[in-house]
Structure formats: C-alpha cells, structure tokens
Amino acid sequence: MFERFTSNGRAVVTGAVEHAERVGADSVDDGHLLLALLDRQGSRASFALAALGADRRREEIADALAEARRRGGLTQADTEALAGLGIDVEEIVARVEETHGAGALAGAGAGRGRKGLGSWFGHRPFTREAKDVLVRALRIATARRERTVGDEHILLALTTRPGIVAEVLGDRGVTREALDRVLA
C-alpha cells in the first residue's frame, strides 16, 4: 500500500514514526500522524490546516492529545458522559498516577511484541487506529479517483475516524466538511 503514497504522504508516515520515537512510545498512533501533518509545510494538507487556523494552534493540539493519553485514551465526550454517571475521570487518573506514577494510563508498552506497518521501516509498529487512518486515506483517494495518497487524504481520514484526534481537530474547526471546502 505504501507505494501508492506521494512523497508528502510518505513524509507524514515517517514523521509520525519520528514523533513516536521522540516521546518513547512503543507504537505509532493516529495522534502521531496528526503531529507529523502539523509539521509539514508546502503541501496540500499544510495549506488546508493553515486556512483553518490549526497551524497556529499546534502546541494547543499537542497538549490536547497528551491530555487525552493521560486519561487513558478517553475523549472529552467520554469524560463528560462518565461525569453524567457520577464518575470523575480526573479523580481516577489522579489516584492511578498517585499509586503508579505520572502518565500511568498513557498506554506505555501497549504495542510491545506486535508487528505492523512500522516494521517496514525498522521502527515501532502502528496501532490499529493509525493503520485504520492509512486505509481510510487510501479509500478516500480511491473514491476521488486519485491514483496516489497524499497528506491531504491522511488529514481527511483523521477527521472521519471517531476518536480523540477527530475530536481535537473538530474542536478547532478542522472537520471533514471544512476540509472539503478548503481543498476543493
């Protein structure tokens, strides 16, 4: 599948691996793909992110992704739904971190022993979510009758997959609909 990626699409994937390595993550997730997209310049995705103002909010986005990892991968919507049931996620996170250390719920070690797309590069494996984003990117490109997968397709795929990344982007106005308008 990777041979169908443009140089910008490949740069996002390799950039995501580098992000995972920098933070010592055992696997590459969809958040790493987003951070790699935010690092890009001069591409269709970087143009779209700039047009929607997300490029100026990189640190805010990185902080939101880190906070979601700290909550064990729960989205803000999940946290609010649990609060409606009387479950204080922040209190649970604080207690777990008190006992097991800061970032105990962040999922360190989750990818050990698994082989995935990342092994093509001799690096960390990709999580199921990250693989799903790349497959979705391929499907988006195919549906648009485009022969290759660019970084814009990866960005579009990130907005269509329910979860933390789509929530973080959506909270900042980067939705599939907004991207379709900007990329048209």
From TrEMBL:
Residues 2-184 form the Clp R domain. It comes from the Bacteria. One of its GO terms (molecular function) is ATP binding. SUPFAM superfamilies: Double Clp-N motif. The keyword Protease applies. Keywords: ATP-binding, Hydrolase, Nucleotide-binding, Protease, Repeat. The keyword Cell membrane does not apply. One of its GO terms (biological process) is proteolysis. Pfam families: Clp_N (PF02861). This is ATP-dependent Clp protease ATP-binding subunit ClpA. It comes from Streptomyces spectabilis. The lineage of its organism: Bacteria, Bacillati, Actinomycetota, Actinomycetes, Kitasatosporales.
